[in-house]
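[09:14] KT: can someone run the structure on this one? pasting the chain below
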Amino acid sequence: MAKPPYRRVLLKISGEALMGRLEYGLDPAMVDRIAAEVKSVHALGGQVCVVIGGGNIFRGLSGTATGMERATADYMGMLATVINSLAMQSALERVDVPTRVLSAIPIAAVCEPYIRRRAIRHMEKGRVVIFAAGTGNPFFTTDTAAALRASEMGCDALLKATKVDGVYTADPVKDKTAKRYEQLSYMEVLSQDLKVMDTAAIAVARENKIPILVFSIFEAGAFAEVVSGRGRYTIIEEV
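[09:31] RB: done, structure tokens below
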């Protein structure tokens, strides 16, 4: 089987994606489906690392809106990502994909602490690495954590999994006239305020020349297709 063009990739998944059709928490069927997507790329011989958001359990900004201190709310959000990461680890290991969870906040009883060289070594040994607890610092989103970890790991691409098959001029669910982009530059994303990822994440990816590929995680087989250089997606890179 031919090697995919992207040898080492980071998959960014929102916490909301894990809800499936539920209004809150984890939908086991959706977690298993995403695990199957990751397994398909792992089977191609690619090295995969993952960052998962925590919005299905707790979102720091929503806590702030209710009067909670921002730093405290963000730490609670980071712990939510640990829960999601452990759920994904369990799902991956049920389908025989060796997986390690590395947390930016040390929680020795349930996962390993984040150490860059250890994470790289895990991937070199064929293990999927899930980065939990964001950057370990408040005031940073998991999007920024994904761009940071992709840079640290020397990833060939950052794949942003969404509900739609790329970046559009507007929400295609709400606006049927929205047009889809095939390719964008980092500056176009920022100047047009396209809301693909937050500004800090785009800046980190741009600084380290990591292309961002936006695709739909709800389309079966899409992850492997995009990693293989096929499929339907929008690529964000320096033009």
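[09:33] KT: thanks! The chain is about 35% helix and 20% strand.
[09:34] RB: yep, looked fine to me
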